[in-house]
């Protein structure tokens, strides 16, 4: 029996006031440091750390990273200098040798069992070797937001720790198969100028969490080339590329702004809405309808494994349609992906996340 | 409330990204020139000009007194003008 239950399903990859840019900081002096201060989301044995590197120059010196406690008595709250793990320190020395920009993944010398809610500081700092502007790295340490973010914090240090205001940290910590934080290293633009082609997010809702549902609306981030009367189709398609429901996105309604990171909530006006099934893959995105080009920002992950570890769902990622077939792009996602769901029904046989409101007592699957 | 920055480099990368570095070591990268323009465009939005007006007043009266400094005044914040901020 269909339930009128409605909810928003949000995959937030950036803060809602993200302005479209990544902040950088040159670690080119012995006193230079960056750090993130955060609370651990759930109990986890941390084996890996990650941060984004923008570039390297010359002969790169050795750097070090670690998990430390937090000194809340010193403004703006800073790493306390004590490496977690005691005699088996959760730290690592490393010399970046990759091709950048890229995510630098570090394996701790010793894993650390962090408790849910534990406060941790994650600094990156110089260790040894010649360091100067010609022999160093530049980190991509944060996402620029419009407002000051108190938590999690991003700090930079050229001698004294200072809060990097309006910045969301680009640091990550993780176990062997999961990432927390933001293991993202780049942002770029995808554009489409061919009629009938699409840029979309692939998604599915997990089997066992429900039976059927409908998509009432979605949050789109993208823009059409400026100009009056330019349009595109915001649509929901199946794996075969068949349009299930769609609505027009128009520059006349504000979709022609110059920035593709700005939110454009869309409500589908199809009646009835398509009935979708948990466990089945769908695509929600924008199709070029011949009147103008469209652009969207995408966040880049080092590889599909990193994205999956962060998103915690293998089939949530970017995809494109060339008029004939979908191409999965497993290392990219939109900045945000938000669906407004309704008419969510319980899994066949009961269970799942929902309890039918008409029941009292009885059994839950 | 004064802040100073010295631009070290501005680079437009082959993929269209714009990479800006300041002498302090800080910098940022935007996915495209249009994205940078959009962010800059927010600086002279009315909302931000309202904050600039308040900042101008509080820089002169940190204790929040002498509201006559700003009441009735018109603040024009224009990045394209040689006179960046006009108070009339």
Secondary-structure-based class of chain A equals mainly beta
| Radius of gyration of chain A, taken over Cα atoms and rounded to an integer in Å | 23 Å
The share of residues in extended strands of chain B comes to: 25-35%
Rounded mean pLDDT of chain B is 87
Please tally the helical runs of chain A, counting DSSP H or I stretches of 4 or more residues.
1
Strand order of the largest sheet of chain B: 1-2-3
- Tell how many strands the DSSP assignment of chain A holds: 30
Strand fraction of chain A equals: over 45%
**Could you spell the SSE succession of chain B in H and E letters?**
EEEHHEE
Output the radius of gyration of chain B.
Answer: 17 Å
Low-confidence stretches of chain B: none
Oligomer description: heterodimer
Task: Note down, in words, how this protein is organized.
- The complex is a heterodimer of chains A (365) and B (88).
- Chain A has 365 residues and is mainly β.
- Chain A is 2% helix and 52% strand.
- Chain A has one helix spanning 304-311; strands at 7-12, 18-27, 33-39, 44-57, 62-66, 68-71, 78-83, 91-94, 102-114, 119-128, 136-145, 153-157, 161-163, 167-169, 171-174, 179-181, 186-192, 198-203, 212-221, 223-224, 231-238, 243-250, 263-267, 276-277, 282-288, 294-300, 317-321, 326-329, 332-334, 336-342.
- In chain A, strands 2, 4, 9, 11, 14, 15 and 16 form a seven-stranded antiparallel β-sheet that branches. In chain A, strands 8-5-10-3-12-13 form a six-stranded antiparallel β-sheet, with no helix packed on it.
- Chain A starts with 6 loop residues before the first strand and ends in a 23-residue tail after the last strand.
- By secondary structure, chain B is α+β, with helices and mostly antiparallel strands.
- In chain B, 27% of the residues lie in helices and 25% in strands.
- The longest helix of chain B has 15 residues, at 46-60.
- The model of chain B has no long low-confidence stretch (mean pLDDT 87).
- Classes of the chains: A mainly beta (365), B alpha+beta (88).
- The A-B interface holds A 19-26, 28-29, 32, 54, 138, 140, 144, 146, 156, 158, 187-189, 257-262, 295, 297 and B 15-17, 19, 21, 24-32, 34-39, 41-42.
- Strand 2 (18-27) of chain A pairs antiparallel with strand 3 of chain B, so a sheet runs across the interface.
